[in-house]
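Minutes, project check-in
Item: structure for the 435-residue chain
Input as provided by the requester:
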Amino acid sequence: MKKPISILLAAILTGTLAMSGCSKADDSSKGKVDENAAVKLSITWWGSQSRHDYTNKLLEMYTAKNPNITFQATPSGWDGYFDKISAQAAGDTMPDIMQMDYSFISTYSKNDTLADLTPYVTDKTIDLATADTNLVNTGKVNGKLTGVVLGGLSLAMTYNPDVVAKAGLEVPTSKWTWADFEKDMIQIKQKTGTYGQSKIDNISTYPYWVRQYGKTMYSADGTKLGYDNDKVFVDYVSMLKRLQDAKAMPNPDEWAQISAKGKEAEPVVTGQAGATLDWSNYAVIVSKSNPNLKIVTPPYSETGTKALWNKPSMFFSVAKSSKNQKEAAKFINWFLNDPEANKVINAERGIPVSSKIRDSLKASLTAQQKDMFDYADITIANSTKADPADPAGVAEVTKALTDTVNSFLYGKTTAEASAADFRTKANEILGRNSK
């Protein structure tokens, strides 16, 4: 699902940018503009084509209500998104408003490139009165609100009922284990010729896997990995290798070709796979391409340790360098709290954080959206405390994770050597970026 920014650009963020960010003057006059003056807000986000389409429609709606506000929109896929944001941060040319991910908000916040939006919450420009406080607080880094959360999500296994039925399997339930999952994915391949599991997404899956052992991906201070036993890694990659060897899962090269086509073309959507592990809004995102997909909890470890967590789906952040912070804050407030806007968004960016908006949408939910809303209750019953925002250096760590896993899947090293290699690289990166 997600690929990290490059090592070079991550180094820029954590090195020279940190110094330049600290030297910037905190211009308290920013955002204080004539409310009737013409303003062009630059905005960027990642997502599928359907997200691009409805977000552009939203921008047109906002301009119709506020004729002095126009937009310079730069939609993107996930791949390369944070490469571009990183380069813009280094050059002090970040857009006014940017969609921000939980994995990166800490890095950009600590490098002083994101505006603290607390004053705009205090003066009610951004109204968070009906928002979930726990989710709102995920946008705070070092006491500053650098991201306004747009929705809540959790990991889910999305499955294709038609493929599951063709394979002669019962639909999965929240009782299934990883052993059940592996057996079912291989049976799908044997019975239908399609993939079982369609996606390699270590960035989301591996932290969930670690949580099943009662540990976290990163230590509390963010200076090293949060688990000590490398058997955690060995067991994880060994399962992936068995699935790949059975051709029940694409190899890394195959997955690279698949992911380049976008979510709507992923095998579970087109009927060329039985399941995929993604976030709980996946079926909503691809519903126009396949309205029949269903979701269930991810498999759990045989120990039964609860590992799910409710996470922010994404944020809107505002560049500290923006001269239009007040207008950006007004737009974010409208995006969160306007009922007509949220009919267009239709919970595609996750379950809305505003209780009023959730209530306003219930009567018009599609089947996929209802599943997502109902799944939130299941998540709560099977969750433990969410991990803190990922530490600085996570971009390099996730690249190291992907490279190490892929090297093992191609038979270039052993599982044990891969585990040790990843630990060494990850701890070096985290230790370096914590200084």
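Outcome recorded: Residues 1-31 have pLDDT under 50 and may be disordered.
No further action items on this chain.
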